[in-house]
Design a protein that fits this description.
The chain is mainly β and about 120 residues long. Helix content is about 0%, strand content about 50%. The strands form 2 sheets. Strands 2, 4, 5, 6, 9, 10 and 11 form a 7-stranded mixed sheet that branches. A 4-stranded antiparallel sheet has the order 1-3-8-7, with no helix packed on it. The radius of gyration is 13 Å and the shape is globular.
């Protein structure tokens, strides 16, 4: 059974940083694309960042470019989202997700709340 479990969310002041973690288990993710999405109250879920499990370039939403960094742990099945220079508009529930190289996002975590105060 595939599981994606996020952690690391919380309350932070504007300008601060948080590091989200996603523990992935249940299958071989080689060749998969790992991503982060977020959903703010009253808004649709939106893309934040993604990367291929086996490495390569990452992709970011324009709104987080230069502030957020997606990465993968070498020794464990974890994906991270380092978030710097946080803004109140970054407040949302953040979801870890995975898909095969071709196709839609199949696996989703339960989400972790990030709240940025002004």
């Amino acid at each position: 059974q595939v599981r994606l479990v996020e952690s690391g969310g919380g309350l932070v002041q504007a300008g601060g940083s948080l590091r989200l973690s996603c523990a992935a288990s249940g299958r071989d993710f080689s060749g998969y694309v790992m991503g982060w999405f977020r959903q703010a109250p009253g808004s649709e879920r939106e893309f934040v960042a993604n990367m291929q499990w086996n490495g390569g370039s990452a992709n970011y939403a324009d709104s987080v470019m230069g502030r957020f960094t997606i990465s993968r742990g070498n020794a464990n099945k974890s994906v991270y989202l380092q978030m710097n220079s946080l803004k109140p508009e970054d407040t949302a529930v953040y979801y870890c997700t995975a898909r095969s190289r071709v196709g839609s996002y199949t696996y989703w975590g339960q989400g972790t709340q990030v709240t940025v105060s002004s």
